[in-house]
Design brief:
Blueprint: H1 3-69, H2 79-106, H3 111-127
Amino acid sequence: MANQPEQAPESQKAAPNFWKSTRKTLHNASFEAQKYKRLVQKKLDLATNNRKFSGFYSELGKLVDDAFTAGEKDFLANSEVNDLLTKLQFLKGNAAALEMEIETIKHANPEELEGDVEVVSEEKDETR
């Protein structure tokens, strides 16, 4: 019978550790799910951005061909050509930014946010 009172404090110590571990596991799982969701969305945005390149390049080629056929020597003087080149430069910048965001998301870890989660969890435990 002397063993029963000793077991009670051990089980009381194990319960908070179990819930803390469960909370951490759920946090890590939800973080990974959100990370995957953001990663897929950024990759879709990048694919959409990259699809626009072929359309702009074909339009640029058509404008240059039309200008060459018309006898123009300075293609860059044409405002439509300059507009398309500006749009292409903008798309390249977007693609580079999206690729950097994808790399940032890939290397993110849940420990960066863990401190915030623990503080909130402890406050909830104290109020019970």
